[in-house]
Design brief:
Layout: E1 7-12, E2 15-20, E3 58-60, E4 67-69, E5 75-77, E6 88-90, H1 92-114, E7 116-122, E8 128-135, E9 141-145, E10 149-153, E11 157-165, E12 175-184, E13 191-197, H2 206-222
Antiparallel strand pairs: 1-2, 3-4, 5-6, 7-8, 7-13, 8-9, 9-10, 11-12, 12-13
Helix pairs in contact: 1-2
GO molecular function, one term: zinc ion binding
Keywords: Metal-binding, Zinc, Zinc-finger
Domain FYVE-type: 39-94
């Protein structure tokens, strides 16, 4: 795992951003700033078709780069996927997407970084190891610590299957008790598999484990999404 996690403050036409000094250290959930539609190519609002003049000014959405009037692009919403320090102007459609992502950043990522404890089984082994599992601070790696140590790059994860119990034919609540994780080894096409199981001894941490597993499932989807988090 790269140790170059230092960040720097940069100014762009869209606002101040706190970005990693090295691009290789950027979060897999990050988005690049979009190119702005040139002013000369947008004489009218791209949402309501209002003509721009000295009174009706044009504004660019920081998420999609399109050109809008103030009415159609008035909301300033946090956009952590582009590392903006302050909320930035976004069109109504993009603002809704960014607002939905707020929960992901405020809750799921924090749950994963705090970590949870599981019995981890590698491949087809019949032996499991008690390990603390957490997301690295730069959000790039799943870190497993026990007697052994593993670091799995989030972008190399191909499948996350959540294991549940409690389902009954007549319906009923289920809870996550583990997961099967498949990932590629960097530099090869080999696919590895790990099984995570919440220990029965940790009844007080069952809720924590279930929350961590649910967050891991969302993160695996988010890392594959280029535009929005599910």
């Amino acid at each position: 795992m790269s140790g170059g996690d230092a960040k720097k403050l940069v100014r762009s036409p869209s606002g101040l951003r706190m970005v990693p000094e090295h691009r290789a250290a950027r979060s897999p959930f990050g988005l690049d700033e979009p190119p702005w539609v040139p002013d000369k190519e947008c004489p009218r609002c791209m949402q309501c078709d209002t003509k721009f003049d000295f009174i009706t000014r044009k504004h660019h959405c920081r998420r999609c780069g399109k050109c809008f009037c103030d009415k159609c692009c008035s909301k300033k919403v946090p956009l952590p996927r582009m590392c903006f320090v302050d909320p930035v102007r976004q069109c109504a459609e993009c603002a809704l997407v960014s607002q939905k992502e707020t929960e992901f950043y405020d809750k799921q990522l924090k749950v994963l970084m705090n970590g949870a404890t599981f019995f981890v089984t590698l491949g087809t082994s019949d032996k499991s190891e008690l390990m603390v599992c957490r997301l690295s601070n730069n959000q790039r790696y799943l870190v497993l610590d026990g007697d052994s140590h593993y670091e799995i790059e989030i972008t190399q994860i191909s499948t996350v299957q959540i294991l549940t119990e409690g389902f009954t034919p007549g319906g009923g609540n289920t809870r996550a008790i583990g997961m099967i994780l498949q990932y590629k080894v960097p530099g090869s096409e080999e696919v590895m598999q790990m099984k995570f199981t919440a220990g029965e001894d940790f009844s007080c941490n069952k809720k924590l484990s279930a929350s961590w597993l649910a967050a891991m499932h969302k993160v695996s989807k988010a890392a594959k999404s280029e535009t929005r988090l599910k």
